[in-house]
Amino acid sequence: MLLKRLKGWELPERAVTSESVFHNRRALLKGLAAGPMILSAAALAGCSDEASAEADAAKQLASVEPDPSSHLYPVKRNPAFADGGPDRPITDPDLATSYNNFYEFGSHKNISRAAQALKIRPWTVTLDGEVAQPKTIDIDDLLDQMPLEERVYRLRCVEAWSMVVPWSGFPLSALVKLAEPLSSAKYIRMETFMDPDNAKGQKQHWYPWPYIEGLSIEEAMNDLAFIATGIYGKPMPRQNGAPLRLAVPWKYGFKSTKSIVRFTFTSERPVSFWEELQKSEYGFWANVNPEVPHARWSQASERPLGGGNERIPTLLYNGYAEQVAGLYKGMEGERLFT
Asked: Which stretches of the chain are assigned E, i.e. beta strand?
């Protein structure tokens, strides 16, 4: 008899609740409202910990122009990334799609409606920098040539809340191969859109727009690094980062930049958005570590989204140490966990 040995972050299939059941679990929303808010600079970190008073705001998507990529979904779940971890069911989709932070559309926490102003077509993705030949690709042409699949990942916010999400998309390594980087390229600099006429938050001049994030080439080529283009078997909603966003589950959520338009391959380490704003609190690597606190709060535990005030222990690298710890050997002098 074939026995499957679960990895440290996996949970049995029986523990994963179907989307259809989740849609009927509206009572979860009430429990979320009891959670305390983390204010001031804590709220700057690209994620939010404020309960949505209108968790059905995502239903407004029905009135927005449909995503042209809808016919591509759902896609088959990759069995190697099918679980969120021990006793970690998939988060209610109504929560995950209405409980968002997207500073391009405002610094408040309930931006799902405002984000519907995001224009997702036309949309092009540029691959440039230290590459064999710079390319600009239409998003639908890119989706047609990428190996789409679904993966269930944990997401751990630097503000100490978390969720488990079934992302659809493709390995970042596939995009790296398409770009054909030169051997001199050591990092990927990712840049989001600029459209202040529709994204009103981009008129706030004290932020260093556009939103910039980065990874090392080694991180980008890791099996876990993922470009998400959908969620819950559907195209990516605007408030979650349509039409494509980064998903790197071993890092704090602010690293998973949304609505990307450019991937630049470079020999110099990029300065990320939050690193430029507050370098002492938000570093480049931003790997999850329960033993390394934020400057103003502990990272030892987290509150699962939809679980009221329940707190659970945070795991090193968000439970993905087996897959990624080797990336950082010999880097003891770096600030790997802030």
From this structure: 124-129, 135-138, 149-156, 161-171, 187-192, 212-216, 226-231, 234-235, 245-247, 260-266, 301-304, 312-313
